[in-house]
Amino acid sequence: MNVALVKLSSLGDVVHALPVAATLRARVPQARITWIVERREAAVLAGHPALERVVTVDTRRWRRARTPAALGESARAVVAIRRELRSARFDVALDLQGLIKSGLLVRLTRAPLRIGFDQRWCREPLNVLATNRRVAPPIEARHVVDQYLSLLGALGIDGRVLEFRLPSDPAAEARMDEFFAGAGLKPRDRVVVLNPGAGRPEKRWSLERFRALAGVLTAAHGARVIVVWGPGEEADARAVAGTVASHVLLAPPTDLFALIALLRRAGVVVAADTGPLHLAAALGTPCVGLYGPTRAERNGPYGAGHRTLQASDGRVETIDVESVAAATRELLG
Predict the structure, then answer these.
(1) Going edge to edge, which strands form the sheet with 32-38?
(2) What CATH class is the domain 170-332?
(3) Burial of 33 from C-beta contacts in 10 A (0-12 / 13-18 / 19+)
(4) pLDDT by residue (tens digit) across 322-333?
(5) Looking at domain 2-155, what is its CATH homologous superfamily?
(6) What is the dihedral of CA 247, 252, 258, 261, to 10 degrees?
(7) pTM over 0.90
(8) Angle between helices 275-283 and 256-264 in degrees, nearest 10
C-alpha cells in the first residue's frame, strides 16, 4: 500500500500528527509512506524511520507571488509537484489538515481512496470536495492527536502507537552540552525554559508577566531560567532575560535541532500554544501551557505530567503570574 500523508503545517500540528505515521508503520509494515509538508516544517521529519519519503512544498511562497517572475516560478513549482505526486501512484491519501490547500494536494495525488475529516471537523469546509471517505472523530477524541489518529479507522487500523519521534543531531547536542556546562547547569536540574514568542499575537502572554515569572522562579524557587527565541524574537527574549541577569539566561541562537536539544535538557517548559511547547511535550519534558483563544483540551501538551492554564475569557494575558509559578513549582517538585 502506497500512502500519502498530507499535514503541511504548523510545527506543533506536524508534531501532533507523528503518531499517525508511527501507527501506519507498525500496523501495516509493508506500507510505503510519503509525507507532504511545508518546506519550513520539513526538518521535524528528518530521518523519520516510518517514512519512505518527504515531499516538501512552499505554499507560503506561492501565495506571496506577485511579480510575473515570481508567479511563473510558483506555477513551475506546482507543475513539478503535480508530476511528482502523480508518478508516485498513491493508493491512499490522508488529509490531516482540513484546508483547501491540503485538499488540493490530496487531489493531486490521484489516490483512489482519499480520506479526510467530515465537513463539521474541517477548518475550511470546502476541503471535503477533495476527499471521498470522510470521518467524524468519536466524541472521546477531544485532543487533536486523537482526532488525527481517528482517520486511520477508515483503513480498518486500530491499536494506536503514540510515538513522537523527533530528529536528533549530534553536533547540536554537543553545542547544547557546551552551553549548559558553560552556564554551570545540569540538564533537568531545576532548569525552566521560557518561550515568550508565539506565531499569533493573541496567543502571547505579556513580556511583563514573563519577566515577573522569571523573577519569582529564580528568587523564590531557586530555579535557573533559560529564555528561548526564534526569528525576530531576540529583542523580546532579551527583555525577559535581562530581569535577573545572574539567574536568567538568554538561549543561544537555535535551529530546530538545537532547540530540540535544549528542550530535551529542560526540567520544565513554560510557553503558549506554540511549536516549542509541543516539541517539549513530544520529548517527554514537563510543560506548563498558557491558553487563551485556543482550547487546551484540544491543543494542550499531549500526554501525562503536564499542566495547562486556560484563560476563562479567552485572553491569555489575563492568566496571572502566581498561577503559572505554582504550576511550574509543582512540576519542578
Answers:
(1) 53-57, 32-38, 2-6, 92-95, 113-117, 133-135
(2) alpha beta
(3) buried
(4) 999 999 999 998
(5) Glycogen Phosphorylase B; (3.40.50.2000)
(6) -10
(7) yes
(8) 50
